[in-house]
Design a protein that fits this description.
alpha+beta, nine-stranded mixed β-sheet, 12 helices, 34% helix, globular
């Protein structure tokens, strides 16, 4: 069983105590059970597996009469799909780079170093995969302490980029952001939250609850010299939003900057509602603000201009935010 996770025994025991998966929905047409290994292995694997039921258009080759209407959208089969919540590991390197390459909106930075940092932080961070395929990464969530990793080139590049954008678009908040980046007595975590656009929303609350569980575990069990680095005071999120701009709004860049924004990930609107402050800027022409490349799988089709919203959220608000996520997807 330990080889399934590819991590230490200490980490394996923590996984066995992780979050409960969302309740499985009722399946209309039960599928044949998959043949797997021993019962013992199957039980262990299920500890960190999310079972979801997805709808798919009926394609069984048996056409049924539908009162003269073709392609009735109400007719579908339900299939069961499993997603595993896994620890980060070396095989995730290239997939993480794909998700993270566009973080600075086309500006080159040391994305390889950032991917390596995520992989090296086994105690906090979750990769979304499907059983039996360790190389296909469908999304991930992690939090990196910006003060602990302040000497890394990638972290310096991210901090500099965000601070410069804040000075350009919202000078009143620039001093607050700079203070948070420099004040090591109040640990600041950079939340990196990326996934493919077609993943089921029911994954989201469990994924963010996993982050809470990871942080608690790290505070209690990590090496003594780094435990305090996981006692986050605030989180920094770099999100993607879209908004329509009128000619008047373009002339008044700092007036009601957040007004009319729509979020690409529903949970990030919940973070924004609890934020201490935020600022927004339009992405450079020719970029999409999608992490990864300009054709990232997390891209959402829209004709509206794409923007970045950067926000600072108190860490103490995270449990309430996750509860709101769960309520929305129930």
């Amino acid at each position: 069983t330990q080889s399934t996770w590819g991590t230490s025994a200490r980490r394996h025991l923590r996984l066995m105590k992780r979050r409960q998966p969302p309740k499985k929905e009722e399946v209309e047409e039960p599928m044949e059970p998959e043949v797997s290994g021993s019962d013992e292995d199957e039980d262990d694997d299920d500890d960190d597996r999310i079972d979801l039921t997805l709808g798919r258009d009926e394609q069984d080759g048996e056409e049924e009469e539908d009162d003269g209407e073709e392609g009735d959208d109400d007719e579908f089969n339900e299939i069961e799909v499993d997603f595993d919540f896994m620890d980060p590991k070396e095989s995730d390197f290239h997939s993480l780079k794909t998700f993270l390459t566009g973080l600075l909106d086309g500006l080159p930075y040391n994305v390889s170093e950032l991917a390596d940092t995520i992989i090296s932080q086994v105690s906090v961070g979750t990769m979304i995969k499907v059983p039996g395929d360790e190389y296909s990464l469908f999304g991930f969530l992690t939090a990196l302490n910006l003060h602990r990793h302040k000497n890394l080139e990638s972290i310096q590049q991210i901090a500099h980029y965000l601070l410069e954008k804040c000075k350009q678009t919202d000078p009143a908040q620039a001093a607050n952001l700079q203070q948070l980046l420099q004040d090591e007595t109040k640990p600041l975590g950079l939340i990196l939250n990326e996934r493919m656009v077609n993943l089921p929303p029911k994954l989201v609350p469990a994924l963010h609850q996993a982050l809470i569980d990871d942080i608690h575990w790290a505070i209690d069990n990590e090496d003594v010299e780094v435990r305090d680095t996981f006692k986050f005071e605030n989180f920094l999120l770099v999100t993607r939003v879209f908004k329509e701009e009128s000619a008047n709004q373009k002339k008044k860049k700092n007036k009601s900057a957040d007004e009319g924004c729509s979020f690409y990930k529903f949970e990030e609107e919940l973070y924004h509602q609890e934020s201490l402050f935020s600022f927004i800027f339009r992405c450079p022409h020719g970029t999409t603000a999608a992490s990864g490349t300009t054709s990232s799988t997390s891209q959402v089709a829209t004709d509206a201009p794409t923007h970045r919203m950067v926000m600072v959220v108190p860490a103490a608000k995270l449990p309430a935010i996750v509860a709101q996520m769960a309520a929305l997807v129930d």
